[in-house]
């Protein structure tokens, strides 16, 4: 899937998928561990970025 056609998630959707709080999700975005874009005043996270984050965390934990 290309970035242009990627599903974009809101921060609350990312929170639900990762079972994390709002501050933690924004900390991940701020530290660039989770890729995001800004559209107007809205922050969006590509679904691929969430999957990549999970894979990376699993690899680091191993």
Structural features, described:
- The structure is a single chain.
- With 62 residues, the chain is α+β, with helices and mostly antiparallel strands.
- It is built from three helices and three strands, in the order E-H-H-E-E-H.
- The longest helix has 15 residues.
In short:
With 62 residues, the chain is of the alpha+beta class. Helices cover 52% and strands 16% of the residues. The protein contains 3 helices and 3 strands.
Keywords:
62 residues; single chain; 3 helices; alpha+beta; globular; 3-stranded antiparallel β-sheet
In sequence order, what are the helices and strands, one letter per element?
EHHEEH
> What's the arrangement of strands in the largest beta sheet?
1-3-2
As a whole number of angstroms, the C-alpha radius of gyration is: 11 Å
Given as residue ranges, the uncertain stretches (5+ residues, pLDDT < 50) are: none
Helix content: 40-55%
Number of DSSP strand runs: 3
Give the overall shape, derived from the CA principal axes: globular
* First and last CA, distance: 27 Å
Number of helices: 3
Classify the secondary structure makeup into a structural class: alpha+beta
The biggest beta sheet is recorded as: 3 strands, antiparallel
Strand content: 15-25%
Mean pLDDT: 93
Write the layout of secondary structure elements.
Layout: E1 8-9, H1 11-18, H2 22-30, E2 37-39, E3 42-46, H3 47-61
Antiparallel strand pairs: 1-3, 2-3
């Amino acid at each position: 899937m290309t970035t242009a056609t990627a599903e974009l998630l809101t921060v609350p959707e990312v929170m639900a998928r990762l079972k994390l709080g709002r501050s933690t999700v924004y900390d991940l975005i701020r530290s660039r561990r989770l890729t995001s874009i800004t559209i107007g005043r809205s922050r969006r996270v590509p679904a691929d970025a969430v999957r990549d984050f999970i894979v990376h965390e699993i690899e680091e934990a191993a």
